[in-house]
Design brief:
The structure holds 2 protein chains of 2 kinds.
Chain A (H helix, E strand, L loop, with lengths): L7 H4 L3 H14 L4 E17 L2 E19 L2 E7 L4 H18 L18 E4 L11 H16 L6 E17 L4 E19 L4 E6 L19 H17 L6 E7 L1 H13 L4 H4 L29 E4 L20 E6 L2 E2 L8 H4 L9 E2 L8 E2 L3 E4 L9 H6 L3 E13 L5 E13 L2 E6 L2 E6 H6 L1 E4 L6 E10 L4 E9 L2 E10 H4 L2
Parallel strand pairs in A: 4-6, 8-15
Antiparallel strand pairs in A: 1-2, 1-5, 2-3, 5-6, 6-7, 8-22, 9-10, 9-14, 10-11, 12-13, 15-16, 16-17, 16-18, 18-22, 19-22, 20-21
Helix pairs in contact in A: 2-3
Chain B lengths: L2 H11 L5 E17 L2 E2 L3 E16 L2 E9 L6 H18 L31 H11 L4 E17 L4 E16 L6 E8 L7 H14 L3 E2 L4 E7 L1 H13 L3 H5 L6 E2 L2 E2 L11 E4 L33 E5 L2 E2 L6 H7 L10 E4 L6 H6 L3 E15 L4 E14 L2 E6 L2 E6 L1 H7 L2 E2 L3 E3 L11 E3 L2 E12 L3
Parallel strand pairs in B: 8-18, 9-16, 15-22
Antiparallel strand pairs in B: 1-2, 1-3, 1-5, 3-4, 5-6, 6-7, 9-23, 10-11, 12-13, 12-15, 13-14, 16-17, 17-18, 17-19, 19-23, 20-23, 21-22
The chains are: A alpha+beta, B alpha+beta.
Chain lengths: 503, 458
C-alpha cells in the first residue's frame, strides 16, 4: 500500500511526539506495558425522504488513549487534546487508575506475545475516498434513485440514504510496534413503501446491498448493481402486496446469503466470542452456550458447516492490518466439519485458552473507549468441491421457502433461540419457485438449525454481507463487521405466520 | 474555551447566514463494571461535542447543514471552519421541506452563564461499599453502574440561550447461582445514587434465586402473565417510539387507520395515560428542544422550542402523535415533540406482590430482552424473557420455569387486553437502557401473552 493514501490531515498530527511522550512517561512510572492510540474518525450521512433531502450531516471524532499494565493491572485514560504534554499527562492518569484498582483486581493480566511491527502502514481496499466526493453529487445520485422508484407503479414512498466513515488509527506500544492505518466503509440503503389505502395495509421492500469496506465507487456499480435492483424492486414489492399469507409449519428453507449472514452473525459470530463464553458480558450482551469446556467436541451443526473467523477478507468491515493490541491479523477456523474448534480472542484471552498468540480481535470504537474483544468477519465456507447454484439447492426441495434479504432479528442471551424475518419469501413447490409469500418468520434453536444444514452452495453463490452497527459492552461500543456466505439449504425449519402470532 | 464563548463566537462567524444553531455538549461519565464477582472495567471519562447547524437561503427555500466535532476548541478559527463546513453542507443539501423560522426566545435562562457539571468516581462512595459486600457474597455477581452528567448549551441566531444539566444514572445487578443454572436480575435508575441500596437490590435477586430451587418445565403457549414495571416499560417505550405522526398520516404505521391516524380510538376501558413530561419529578429532561438531525417528528429548525407534556394515550384513548412544527403545519395539527421520559399511569394502587396474590395460575416475569419489530402493520414485537420466569399458583410463587420463552406480542395489545394495571413506580427498562432510562411504569396483567417458543438460554 502506498504511504500517501493516509489522510494528510491525520499524518499532520504530531503522532511520533505523542507516542514518545506517552510511552516514556508510562515507562518511567513503572508500566510494564503501555500503548497509545490516536484516532480520527470522520463520518457523513446523507438522508432523503421521497426524493427530498432530510439531512446532510458531518461528524468528526478525535482523541488519544493510553492503556497501561502496571504490576499486572490495567489502567486506561483518554483525552481530546493532541499535544505531547497532554499525552504524557494521560499516560500518568492511566498509571494512576491501574495503581488505584490494584487492591480490588483479583486477576493479574497475562498477555500472549506478538512480534514487533515497526512503522507498519495499512490502508483498506477502496478506490474513491467518499470524503473527496462533493455532498451535492451524493444528494443528486440518491435523489435520482428515489425518483426512479417513486415513478414506478405501486410505490408510494421512498426513503434513501448513505452513511460513510473514514477511520484513521495510529498505534504505538513500548515493545516497539507502530502502526498507521486507514479504513473506509460505506452503507447505502433505500426502502420503498406501498400503501393499500382501501384495505388499510402497507408493505415495504429494501435494498439488499450490503454495507462494505469500499469507497464511493460502490455507489456507481463497483461491487453492487444498484440500477438492476432499482429496476426490479417495484415489481417485487407489488407482487409481495398481493402475495398469500404463509401456512405456519415446518418447511425446507433455501436461505440466500443476503439473509443468512445475519443468522450467522447472531448464532455463530456472537456465540464464539471468548469474553462472552467466560461471562464477561453476562449481565448485558449475554453469555454463550458454546463454552470453552466444549471446544473440540460440541456438535454445532452438520458436516457441511465450516465457519471461519478472519480480519483479512478484502472489503470486509472488520478487516484491518493490525488490531488494537498491535497484533498482525489473520484467519482461522471457528467451526470445522460441524464441530466447535475456535474462538475470537485478544492478547489477554489467548493464554487462557492455552494459545501462544492472539488471533487479533481487539478493537475500540473510539479513542475514548477501552479495546475489547470484538467480532472478526465470521463467514460460512461455500462448497469447496462443487459450484452448486442456488437453483440447484432449490431444485432439491419439494415443499419449502426461499428466503431473501434480512429484516427483523432477535436471539436469546445464550445464542440458542432465534427468530428472523426477511425482505422476500418465495414458495418452493416441486423444486421450483412459485411466487411470493407474506407474513413469514423462521424460528429455531441454533444447534438444531445448523444441524439441519444439508447442502451449501458453491463459490459463485457466495456474498460478503454485514452490519455497521453491532453493539457490545457497557458503556456501549459499536463495531462494523462482515459475514460471507453461500446460499444454503436447511431441512424442516419451523416457520411462523406473523399475523397468527399477533392474534 | 468556555462553552458560552464557543456559542457566541460561532454565531458571530455565522452572522452572514440566514440562521444558525450552536449546540455544545459536555459529558462526564463514571462507570463500574463487574463480572464473575470481580471488578472488570471501571473508569471516568469526559467528552464534548460542538454541533453547528447552518441555515442558508437557497433557490426554492432554506437549506440546513449539520457539522459536529469532538475536538477540543482551542481557537476561533476552528469554529469558523465548522461554520464554513456546515454552510457548504446546507448548499449541497438544497431546500429543506421542514424549513421554519427558528423559535423565538421565551425569557432569560438564569443558568446560561454557568459551567459544566461533572460527576466523578466518588459518586459511587456509599454504593461501592455496599457493592464490595455483595461481591463477597455466595452468588456469582455481574453488573454495571453508570452515572453521567451532561451539560448542554444551546444558542440560536433567533436569540435563544439555554443551558441544561441532565443527570442519567442506573445500576443493573445480575446474580447467578454458583453452578450458573439460576440467574436473577434487579435494576434501578437514579439521579445521583444517593437513593440506591445495592445490598437491598442484591437481596431481592437472592430471593428470586431461592424461588429457583424448585424448577418446572412449561411448554410454549398463551399464559396469563404478570409484566413487572421493567417489562412494561420496554414494551411501552417501543410504542412511544412508534407514535410518529407522518407515517400514521401516510398510512404506513400501526397507528394508521382507514380514515387517517387512529387518534381518538379507544384501546381500553382502563383509564390508562401514556405520556412524556419534561417536568415529571425525578425524571426531568430538557425543557427546550435540541435536535441535531431532522426526521419524522423532529426537525433541526425546532431547536430552542419549549418541550411539553405529550399524552400519546389519554384515559385509554389514542391522543397525540409526534409532529415537528413543519409537520404540524403540513397536517394541520399541533407541534408535538417526543420526550426523554415515559410514564404510564391510571392503574390501581396494587403492587406486583398484590397482583401475584390475586393470581390463580400465571407467569411472573423479571424483564424482557432483544425486542425487535416483526410486523409494523400491527406493531408485533418479538423478544425473550430474561433472568427469571416464575410460576404463580394459588396466589404465590411456587417455582421458577427452567428456561426462558420467546414471545411475539404487540404493545398495542398489552394496552387493549390488560385486565389489571397496578401502581406506577420508577423503573429501569432493561432492553432500552442504553438509550432510555427515565421511566415510571405499573405492573400489568395480560391474560393470554403469546409465549411462542421455549428458549433454552438461561
Amino acid at each position: 500500500m502506498s504511504l500517501d493514501r493516509i489522510d494528510p490531515e491525520f499524518r499532520a498530527l504530531p503522532l511520533t511526539a505523542l507516542a514518545d511522550a506517552a510511552l516514556s512517561r508510562a515507562r518511567d512510572l513503572g508500566a510494564e506495558h503501555a500503548d497509545l492510540r490516536v484516532e480520527r474518525i470522520v463520518s457523513q450521512s446523507v438522508d432523503l425522504r421521497d426524493g427530498t433531502v432530510t439531512g446532510v450531516s458531518d461528524a468528526t471524532t478525535v482523541g488519544l488513549a493510553v492503556r497501561v499494565i502496571v504490576d499486572g493491572v490495567w489502567g486506561f485514560a483518554s483525552h481530546v487534546e493532541l499535544t505531547p504534554e497532554r499525552a504524557a499527562a494521560t499516560a500518568e492518569r492511566a498509571v494512576t487508575v491501574a495503581r488505584t484498582l490494584a487492591p480490588v483486581a483479583i486477576e493479574r493480566v497475562e498477555r500472549a506475545d506478538e512480534p514487533v511491527h515497526a512503522d507498519a502502514v495499512w490502508v483498506s481496499s477502496y478506490e474513491v475516498d467518499p470524503f473527496t466526493v462533493p455532498a451535492r453529487d451524493k444528494v443528486e445520485l440518491l435523489g435520482e434513485w428515489s425518483q426512479r422508484l417513486l415513478a414506478a407503479d405501486g410505490v408510494d414512498h421512498v426513503q434513501a440514504g448513505v452513511a460513510q466513515v473514514r477511520e484513521n488509527k495510529f498505534y504505538a506500544d513500548l515493545a516497539g510496534t507502530r502502526t498507521t492505518q486507514q479504513r473506509v466503509r460505506i452503507a447505502p440503503w433505500f426502502t420503498a413503501t406501498a400503501v393499500d389505502r382501501a384495505a388499510g395495509g402497507f408493505e415495504t421492500m429494501s435494498s439488499l446491498a450490503p454495507p462494505a469496506g469500499r469507497g464511493w465507487e460502490y455507489m456507481t456499480g463497483g461491487g453492487w448493481d444498484f440500477d438492476g435492483e432499482i429496476a426490479l424492486l417495484p415489481e417485487l414489492l407489488a407482487e409481495k402486496m398481493k402475495a398469500p399469507s404463509v401456512a405456519a409449519g415446518a418447511y425446507d428453507l433455501v436461505i440466500d446469503p443476503t439473509n443468512l449472514w445475519l443468522t450467522i452473525h447472531e448464532s455463530v459470530g456472537h456465540a464464539t466470542e471468548y469474553d462472552r463464553a467466560i461471562g464477561y458480558e453476562a449481565a448485558y450482551a449475554g453469555t454463550s452456550f458454546a463454552t470453552p469446556d466444549k471446544l473440540g467436541t460440541l456438535r454445532y451443526g452438520s458436516e457441511h458447516m465450516h465457519v471461519t473467523g478472519d480480519r483479512t477478507v478484502p472489503h470486509g468491515l472488520a478487516t484491518v492490518g493490525y488490531d488494537d493490541d498491535g497484533v498482525l491479523t489473520g484467519a482461522w477456523d471457528l467451526v470445522r466439519d460441524g464441530v466447535l474448534v475456535g474462538y475470537q480472542l485478544d492478547r489477554t484471552f489467548a493464554p487462557r485458552l492455552g494459545l501462544d498468540r492472539s488471533n487479533g480481535c481487539a478493537f475500540a470504537d473510539s479513542p475514548h473507549h477501552v479495546p475489547i474483544q470484538r467480532m472478526a468477519n465470521v463467514s460460512l465456507r461455500p462448497d469447496p468441491r462443487r459450484d452448486t447454484t442456488t437453483e440447484e439447492l432449490i431444485a432439491g426441495v419439494e415443499r419449502g421457502i426461499y428466503v431473501v434479504g434480512d429484516k427483523s432479528w432477535s436471539i436469546d442471551m445464550q445464542r440458542y433461540n432465534f427468530q428472523f424475518t426477511g425482505q422476500r419469501f418465495f414458495r418452493i413447490s416441486g423444486g421450483k419457485l412459485a411466487g411470493q409469500l407474506r407474513d413469514v418468520a423462521y424460528q429455531a434453536t441454533t444447534t438444531d438449525f445448523w444441524g439441519s444444514l444439508d447442502a451449501v452452495g458453491g463459490p459463485s453463490t457466495w456474498v460478503l454481507h454485514g452490519a455497521m452497527n453491532c453493539g457490545k459492552a457497557q458503556p456501549g461500543q459499536v463495531a462494523a463487521v462482515s459475514h460471507g456466505c453461500p446460499s444454503a439449504r436447511f431441512r424442516g425449519v419451523n416457520v411462523l405466520n406473523t399475523q397468527e402470532e399477533g392474534r | 474555551m468556555r462553552a458560552q464563548d464557543v456559542v457566541e463566537r460561532t454565531l458571530a462567524a455565522a452572522a452572514h447566514l440566514h440562521g444558525c444553531v450552536v449546540l455544545v455538549r459536555e459529558s462526564s461519565e463514571a462507570v463500574l463494571r463487574w463480572a464473575n464477582s470481580t471488578m472488570t472495567t471501571n473508569g471516568h471519562t469526559t467528552s464534548g461535542r460542538v454541533t453547528v447547524i447552518a441555515f442558508v437561503a437557497v433557490e426554492g427555500g432554506t437549506a440546513a447543514g449539520v457539522v459536529s466535532s469532538s475536538a477540543a476548541v482551542t481557537g476561533a478559527a476552528q469554529l469558523s471552519a465548522l461554520v464554513v463546513a456546515a454552510e457548504a453542507a446546507a448548499h449541497d443539501a438544497g431546500p429543506a421541506k421542514d424549513a421554519m423560522a427558528l423559535p423565538e426566545p421565551s425569557g432569560d435562562d438564569p443558568s446560561w452563564g454557568d459551567g459544566a457539571v461533572e460527576t466523578s468516581i466518588g459518586v459511587f462512595g456509599g454504593f461501592a461499599e455496599g457493592l464490595a459486600e455483595v461481591l463477597a457474597g455466595p452468588q456469582r455477581q455481574y453488573g454495571f453502574a453508570s452515572h453521567e452528567l451532561t451539560t448542554v448549551w444551546l444558542g440560536t441566531s433567533a436569540g435563544v440561550r439555554r443551558r441544561w444539566v441532565q443527570p442519567t444514572g442506573s445500576v443493573e445487578l445480575n446474580a447467578k447461582t454458583p453452578d450458573l443454572t439460576g440467574s436473577a436480575w434487579t435494576g434501578a435508575s437514579t439521579v445521583d445514587f444517593v437513593d440506591i441500596d445495592v445490598v437491598a437490590l442484591a437481596a431481592e435477586a437472592a430471593r428470586r434465586l431461592e424461588w429457583g430451587r424448585r424448577r418446572v418445565e412449561l411448554p410454549a403457549g398463551r399464559y396469563e402473565t404478570l409484566l413487572p414495571p421493567s417489562a412494561t416499560s420496554d414494551l411501552m417505550i417501543y410504542l412511544a417510539w412508534s407514535m410518529d405522526g407522518r407515517p400514521a398520516q401516510e398510512g404506513r404505521s400501526a397507528l394508521a387507520g382507514l380514515n387517517g391516524p387512529r387518534v381518538g380510538e379507544r384501546l381500553t376501558e382502563l383509564p390508562l395515560t401514556l405520556a412524556c413530561d419534561p417536568a415529571a419529578p425525578g425524571l426531568e429532561y430538557e425543557p427546550f428542544l435540541t435536535a441535531t438531525r431532522s426526521g419524522e417528528g423532529i426537525s433541526v429548525f425546532d431547536n430552542g422550542a419549549p418541550t411539553r407534556r405529550a399524552e400519546w394515550l389519554r384515559d385509554g384513548v389514542v391522543s397525540e402523535l409526534a409532529y415537528s412544527r413543519a409537520e404540524a403545519a403540513e397536517f394541520g395539527t399541533r407541534f408535538t415533540p417526543t420526550g426523554d421520559n415515559l410514564l404510564l399511569t391510571g392503574g390501581s394502587g396494587a403492587s406486583i406482590a398484590d397482583m401475584v396474590a390475586r393470581t390463580e395460575r400465571g407467569l411472573l416475569l423479571t424483564c424482557l430482552w432483544y425486542i425487535r419489530q416483526v410486523d409494523p402493520t400491527t406493531l408485533l414485537l418479538t423478544g425473550l424473557t430474561r433472568d427469571g420466569v416464575y410460576l404463580v399458583e394459588g396466589g404465590e410463587v411456587v417455582g421458577e420455569v427452567d428456561h426462558n420463552f420467546r414471545f411475539n406480542y404487540s404493545p398495542l395489545d398489552v394496552v387493549r387486553r390488560a385486565t389489571e394495571v397496578g401502581a406506577t413506580e420508577r423503573t429501569l427498562p432493561r432492553e432500552w437502557k442504553d438509550w432510555f432510562t427515565r421511566a415510571a411504569m405499573p405492573p400489568v396483567r395480560v391474560p393470554e401473552f403469546n409465549m411462542s417458543s421455549v428458549s433454552l438460554g438461561r
